[in-house]
Fold:
Amino acid sequence: MTENIKSGAGLLKIIAVLLTSVFSINMYAREVAERQITDGTGQDSTKCADNASAYKTFYYNNEINTALDYWRQVLDSCPAFSEDLYEDGESMYLGQYDRTGDLAFIDTVLMTLNQRSYYFDSKVSNDLHASSLLFDLAGDDPVYLGLSYNMLRETADIYPDQMECRHLIMMATAAASLYAMEIIDPEELEAAFVIAIVSLQTRLENNPADAEYSEDLENLETYFSSCGAMTCSSIEKLYTKKIDRYFRDTVLLNKVDAMLTETGCTGSDLYYSIALKRFANDRSAANAVRLAELNIDRNDIERAISYFTEAYNRDTTSAVRSEVILRVAEMELARGKRQEARNRGEHAWQLNKRNGRALLFLAECYAGAEMGNAFDNHAVYWVAVDYLRAARDVDPSLAETADARIKEYEKLYPTREECFYKRILDEGLIYNVGGWVGEVTRVRFRKE
Structure:
C-alpha cells in the first residue's frame, strides 16, 4: 500500500513498521485458529461466555482496566466469539486513548480491526472504518494521514462502489494534505481527485435527485480547483466525456471553460471542443470568431478564415462586421502580410467610422514597413503617427496606447540631415510615401 507515498526514507520506514504491525495480527490470528484446532481452547464455549459476560459487566460499570483483562482472555481463546467483541474492544481502547493520548491504543485498535476482518470477512468495511479513524486522528501527522490515504486509495481502486461519499471526499482531502507536505507527487494528487470526482459524478447521474451527491460533488470540485490538483490533464479526464454527453448544458460548458482558462489550458483539445459545442448551440458571430481565433492558434489558417467568413455572414451589422474584418486583418499582419492586412484594416474602417481600433491597427501596418530605401523606411512613421492621432480622436479610450506609440515612433522619424539630402528643408511640407503604402503626409524632423 505504500507505493502511493513518495516521501523520504524516514517516513517510509515508519509507515512500513506500522503496516507490518497491523498485518502481523493476521498471522497471529491464523496461529490462534490453528491452536484452537490442536489444543481445544476454542471448544471451551462456557469459559468464553463467562469471560465475555465479565468484561461486559466491568465495561458497563466503567471499570475499563478490569474489563480489558477479561476481554483479552476472550480474544485470545475465542477470537471468533462475536463481532460485538471487537466493537467493544475498539470502544474501550479509544476511551483509553481519549484519557491518556497514548497512540499505542490506536495501534491496538488497528490490529483489532484487522483481526476482526480475518474472522468475520469484513475487510473492506473495517479498512474504511480504520481509515476514517486515522484521518480524524491524523491532524498534520504525515504517518497516520499516509496510512489513512493508502487504505482509502486501495479500496477506491478495488472496491469503489463500497465507498461512501464521505470516504471519497476524505481520500481527496488527505491527498491534498499529503501533497502540501510534499509526500505525494502531482500525479498521485490528480489521480485521487479524478477517482473521487468521477465516482461522485457517476452516482449523481444514477441518482439525479440526490441532493447529498450534488452538494458533495460541488464542494469537491471547488476544492479541486484550489488545492493544486487542477491541471489540463485532470480536467480533460474529468470532463471530456461529460461535455460530449451534455453538450447543451451551458452551465457545464461555462464552468469547464473557466477551469481551462484559469489553468492555462486554452490550447487543449477539450477547450476547442467546448468552442465547437458553443457554436453548435448558438451559431453567432461571436462564437464563430472564437473558433476562428482558436484555429489561428492551431495554425489552421484555412479553417480560421472559414469561421471568420461564417461570422461575417452571420451578423450583417456594420459594427460587428468591422470587428470581424479587423480580426482577419490582425491575423494577416501576424503572418507578415502587411499589404493584405492594411487592405482589410481599411475595409474595417469603412464599415464602421467609429472603430478607432481599425485606425490604430493601420498605424501598426505602416510602422516598421520595409519600403526599399532608408528614407522611406523612416518616413512611414509619419504615416503611422497620423493614424495614431486619428485613432485617438475617434476613440479617446485609445489615447494612452496611441500616445505611448506616438512617443516611440517620433524617435524613428527621418533626421534633419536625411531630409536635407532629399532636398526637404522645412517641416510641414507635404510628402508622398510611395509603394504599397501610397499615403500623403507631412514632414517632421526627428528630435535629437
About this structure: Strands lie at 430-433, 439-442.
